[in-house]
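Session log. Operator J.P. requested a structure for one protein chain; no other inputs attached. Running the standard single-chain path with token output.
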Amino acid sequence: MNPLKNLESTTVVLAERNIDTDQIIPARFLTTTSRSGLADGAFADWRFDAQGRPRPECPLNTPDSGEILVAGENFGCGSSREHAVWALMELGFRVVISSRLADIFRANALKNGLLAIEVDAATHAWLLDHPGAKVGVDVAECRLELPERPGVSFELDPFARTCLLEGVDALGYMLGQLDAIEAFERGERRYGAAA
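Structure written below.
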């Protein structure tokens, strides 16, 4: 996982409400436990016609799309599947923004390095109305910078923020604390003094 500190990107907008995880990655593509190789299945029924040809009207088929997906309200609802997060990341997204994200989807996203941001209704409406807008994301400051508008803050769990900034998942973070864990197991205090 690559660290996510600052990102400036154009947006891709999917304004539909209640986009569920089966639309993000249809069940027929859930044949692997690998995080890679899911891009072709991501939004497959939206991106391709029955003959497998790309649908030109789908914003996900635009060449050089951005790394920020702006989605309609209640994005990621439906069944819990990490594959949905992995598929979005395979498509090149690092950030998903909505006025409301499904709780399980948001948790899965943050655990896997995809920044999932909820914004107020006015900011969301502006983003939906301006596809392709260049948006800046500052993870350390938890701020979005928007063109021609004041920046907005977003909430982010401190542990998720640390993992995003360091480019690790929860297990990677724990492994980074291995020296302190082993010292604790030996009965030592963190700074080497015996307990």
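Operator note: Strands lie at 6-14, 68-71, 95-98, 115-118, 134-138, 143-145, 152-153.
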